[in-house]
Amino acid sequence: MSIPKETLLRAYRQMKTIREFEERAHAEIMNGQIPGFTHLYTGQEANAVGVCEHLTDADAIVSTHRGHGHCIAKGADVVGMMKELWGSAEGLCKGKGGSMHVADFDRGILGANGIVAGGPPISVGAALAAKIRGNTQVAVSFSGDGSVNQGTCFEAMNMAVVLQVPAIFVIENNYYSEHTNIRYAVGCDDLKARTEAFGFPVFVADGADFFAVYEAAGKAIAHARAGKGPAGVFAEQGRYHGHFVGDPQYYRGEGELEDLRENHDCLKNFRARMAQTGEVSDAELDAIDGEVMSLIERAVTEARAAPRPSADQVEQDVYINYGT
């Protein structure tokens, strides 16, 4: 598989940005700077970037409660998102969405979603709209392993097949539905087979390998763009943090987190591959690292200083005014 160098550099930058955004958000939440409940995506960056590198602003995504990575990968403004986490009026959703409800329609980000499996039905609606309009746009829903036990997910998959819409179902297996391991929560050992039973192809990838996800997602998205109906991507990769920030993670096995960070890291794997192929130098990747760290620092500085919503804004952007 040949990937242009420009794409490689952009993909690494996006994964590194997600990683540092999440790690900094974790630190700021723990010291009391960011309010509210937050769920981090750290460790799963290759899934979001591997999929979104195939998408344009015209394509739609629907995210999850663990959605910062998806939104950044789709092109959301990093400073605007950090301001949103801080509850600023200058945030992407004017401080009213917070971590679990980030949206940016101009980028095709239809919103993160606090409801498990709340995204797949929305993506089917967006995919149906694309089909009716007769364009080649696709709609992608990201959801975790916990979503595949929800009726809304199954109903969305079935409807997508019945209507033959260009919907992509990305299932990210991070092994835990909140605090419950997938071995206990799911009665079927083969989630790919269970998903394929609805009647569409599912492509499997190692979620710690950007190249594997990029290839699998490319096949799924090409299938949908060609008018062949829905497709799926199934990627496995554990998350580095708990279900939420502050989760003590007593359900983890001994050495599990250490193993994830040491042996299942998409950034390390990407660098190792570039060292082997010579397509991108260490110096180029190091330069990106420095630029990303500067961006995250600027995002935090601006978020701290940004104004909060005022009392007269409380009823704005709540209801649509259709006129009289």
Describe the protein.
The chain is of the alpha/beta class. The chain has one domain (5-303): 3-Layer(aba) Sandwich (Rossmann fold), CATH 3.40.50. Helices cover 45% and strands 10% of the residues. It has twelve helices and seven strands. The strands form two sheets. It has a five-stranded parallel beta sheet with strand order 1-2-3-7-6, with helices on both faces. The chain has a two-stranded antiparallel sheet with strand order 4-5. The longest helix is centred in the N-terminal third of the chain and has 26 residues, at 5-30. The model has no long low-confidence stretch (mean pLDDT 94).
SSE order and pairing:
Blueprint lengths: L4 H26 L14 H8 L7 E3 L5 H6 L4 H8 L33 H15 L5 E6 L6 H13 L3 E7 L2 E2 L2 E2 H4 L5 H6 L5 E5 L3 H16 L5 E6 L19 H8 L2 H12 L4 H24 L19
